[in-house]
Amino acid sequence: MKLIYPGYDVLSKRHSQSWDEPTRQVIDARLAIGGAPRFLNEAQWQTLDAVCQRILPQPIDRPPVPLAALVDNKLLNDRGDGYRDARLPPLRQAWQLGLTALDAEAQALDGRGFTGLTAAQQDALLSAMQRNELKHSVWKSMPCVVFFSHRLIHDITSAYYAHPTAWSEIGFGGPANPRGYVRMGPDSRDPWEPMAAKPGAQRKAEKRNRHVG
Amino acid sequence: MSDDYLTDALRNPRGRDGRAPDVFRRGGWVPMREYPDDELVDFVIVGTGAGGGPLACRLAEAGFSVVAFDAGAWWRPLEEFASDEAHQEKLFWTGERLCDGDNPLKLGTNNSGRAVGGSTVHFAMVSLRFRPEWFKSRTLLGYGLDWPLDWQDMWRYYTEVEQALKISGPVRYPWGPKRPRYPYRQHEVNAPGLALARACEAMGIAWAPTPLATVSAPREHSPPCVYRGFCVTGCATNAKQSGLITWIPWAVKAGAEIRDLAMVGRIETGEDGLASGVHYHREGEWRFQRARNVVVAGYAIETPRLLLNSANSRYPDGLANSSGLVGKNLMVHTNQAVWGTLEEEVRWYKGPPSLSLSEHWNYEDSGKDFFGGYAFMSQGPLPAAWAGAQTGNHGLWGQALVDEMQKYNHQVGLKIVGETLPQERNCVTLADERDEFGLPVARVTWSECDNDRRLVNHAVDFMRRGLEGIDARDIWAEADGTAHLMGTARMGSDPATSVVNADCRSWDIPNLWICDGSVFPTSGGVNPSETIQAIALRTANRIRELARRGEL
Ligand SMILES: Cc1cc2nc3c(=O)[nH]c(=O)nc-3n(C[C@H](O)[C@H](O)[C@H](O)COP(=O)(O)OP(=O)(O)OC[C@H]3O[C@@H](n4cnc5c(N)ncnc54)[C@H](O)[C@@H]3O)c2cc1C
Ligand code: SF4
Question: Of A77, A117, A194, A125, which is closest to residue B398 (Cα–Cα)?
Fold first, then answer.
């Protein structure tokens, strides 16, 4: 993927005036999450990991955001959202049921389970889920489209965009206390914000972005 | 984990042992008066947000003994608020609530808080007055129903709130009757705010810098806003004039006791049918605080939940519910948006999220095929919130989502605060599921009506043309947003059709009061907190007056 903000790493601001101690603690704790599942079983975990790769494909030339582990961590801590569409069971149950049903659905397709499908087949299955077309009996009490929009894409994308790697990718300034920002108007960048690469000026942006902070 | 201290306030109550946290000094404390459970205090207040906070403050200043309870934590913003969306979810009401109806609400981050200071700790600070006619919308505008309040009276209380919170706003506000100058100068309008201004100019309507409850110049313990843009996750600098750093410290200073991490589960009534106190859960046990008066200020879901949960043999349908309207007529604001990208860099994460607005369609009555009004505002969602918009009705995932998110720094948006009509079928009831205190959780039912839909269609069409007028590309409309909660214990002039009177006093039980967003009979097209605070100040004045006349 071509980087819009080449060389920008929001973590390089960690010791700048834009980060305070609470923020450092919180981000450190998030970056420490990874590795094996602590809540889901092995089969569910494998399915989740494959789903994450389809919902949020990541470039191969950088360490991936451990999405499955972040979702598993949310489940481990049973961190609810403060509301639940009444058609869904509680958080943990919804994910366990949903992943198992998705896998069973894939089994029915060609006997190999979700992880055994090609990327195109996986996408087709996820699209069918989004269109509310899956047939497994689980979806009778939990409409698959509701699971898809409230749990599946919601939990995976919010984990991704809570990660510094994603902030760097989209050119978000990141944490901003105590310094905040000074230049507020259009096309105005504070020196502690990333610079977008103009066509032909990749190197210039990269140089600036290495010294952001 | 080393970040444990950041959530200590969720585990250990801080308002105790005769002291309260000093929100302005790291590790500091201030003395706080305390009352024993068996002392008959003048007022127990349940909830310390936009309604409960100012009321606790003014009643304590008037010399009443006051104990205010909040289920949430007592935060120290300078030490415990991270610049982080996910971590700061600790400010929200994340207990379970079930949502159904044709348009099940998305609550959580978007709707209500649980903290000393209530939802004002994470609100977006937009501080607006109701259009005067809305207080008589049935008589003057032909829809909804009339409030028992007089707009000129309210105008005075609005001014009092704006002075107390040092609202920063423009010298001249383009809509409605004359109002005094805002105490602090307006904030600089950021790039997304200027995009709104250009869109309004393209459409030939007025716009204004948004009056905001964050200071534009130093104030006593508050430094000016540094435009860090994390306002809806809590302000770490204390520039934001939330209840946590205004009404609450003033209340404590005036002699009120605030009990944090104290969940009120039931209001007790005595043999005389009057409220006698509250059962509350704190530090692992249920306790009972005696009181001469009980005020419920838990916001439009928790307030009816508590009143319904307090049903007893004398009041089998819940307290203050002879009209049958407790929990009914839940209103939200529709919160639809139109989004697009600009050629220029916008970087909308800088500054408070809504630095400019237009109230044109609140004050213009012609050219509408619906009742009610809406304001629209410039936007600046942080990354996770923005991704949430993309995965909602836009339904993006996979590479399409990744690509769309890459436009983050060029994105602009206009979002409405749209009036919805009161409907009895929209309600808060008790579900079978129970929370960690063993209390039934709330079931929240909401469906839009045709009028709500027509308003949204009008707004989306208008805002779309606005964005086209400034050459935005890739324009799309977010269809399912809602915000704010109102109306589940409405005020009125007739006990048969309302729960409380103009003084927020319940018709059925004269020493039971309700003072928060739930008393709104109609929702209006502006964010509610300034009106809630104005009503609280009025209620405090009325209580003082009634006490003086021996009518309390
Ligand atoms: C993200 C966001 C942005 C917003 N932005 C704006 C804005 O810009 N402008 C605006 O005007 N409004 C805004 N609002 C709305 C505004 O914050 C609320 O309308 C207002 O705070 C409601 O006031 P309240 O007193 O009714 O309830 P709250 O302020 O929510 O206070 C209720 C308190 O009661 C406590 N409580 C409830 N039940 C119990 C119980 N049983 N026992 C003990 N304690 C209990 C809760 O913990 C809570 O702290 C925003 C809201 C959100 C969520
Ligand atoms: S932008 Fe201003 S009000 Fe918002 S969090 Fe920052 S300092 Fe506070």
Answer: A125
| Closest-CA residue to A194 (of A6, A3, A1, A2) | A6
A195 closest CA partner among A173, A166, A163, A175: A173
Cβ B3–A173 below 8 Å, yes or no?
no
Determine contact: B479 vs chain A, CB below 8 A: no
User: Do the bridges between strand B19-21 and strand B29-31 make them parallel or antiparallel, or are there none, so unpaired?
Assistant: antiparallel
B392 near A CB under 8 A = yes
A180 touches chain B (CB under 8 A): yes
| Cα separation, B29 vs B91, whole angstroms | 21
Structure-block tokens of residue B457:
């269609």
Domain ranges of chain A: 10-181+190-212
Q: DSSP string covering B323-357, please?
A: TS-TT-S-EEEE--EEEEE-SS---TTSSSS--EE
Domains in chain B: boundaries: 1-32, 33-548
Q: How many CB atoms lie within 10 A of CB B178?
A: 7
> Could you count the other beta carbons within 10 Å of the beta carbon of residue B472?
23
Please check whether residue B539 is in contact with residue B159, taking contact to mean a CB–CB distance below 8 angstroms. Answer: no
Q: Which atom of ligand 1 is nearest to the CA of B528?
A: 11
pTM for the full model?
A: 0.97
Asked whether the beta carbons of residue A80 and residue B100 sit closer than 8 angstroms, the reply is no
Per the model's pLDDT, the better-predicted residue between A2 and B522 turns out to be B522
Which of B188, B191, B210 is CA-nearest to residue B413?
B191
Interval between CA A180 and ligand 2 midpoint (Å): 8
Residue with tokens 């590479």: B399
| Alpha carbon of B54 to ligand 1 centroid (Å) | 13
Percent of chain B past pLDDT 70, that is, above it, reads 99
- The pLDDT, as a whole number, for residue A1 is 58
Q: Which CATH class is domain B33-548?
A: alpha beta
| Pair B506, B490: CB distance under 8 Å | no
State the burial class of residue B171 (Cβ atoms within 10 Å of its Cβ: 0-12, 13-18, 19+).
exposed
**pLDDT digits 0-9 by tens, B201-220:** 999 999 999 999 999 999 99
- CA–CA separation, B26 vs B77, rounded Å? 9
Residue B249 Cα distances to B12, B115, B243, B296, B299, angstroms: 19, 14, 8, 20, 21
- Using a CB-CB cut-off of 8 Å, the residues of chain A touching B395 are 130, 149
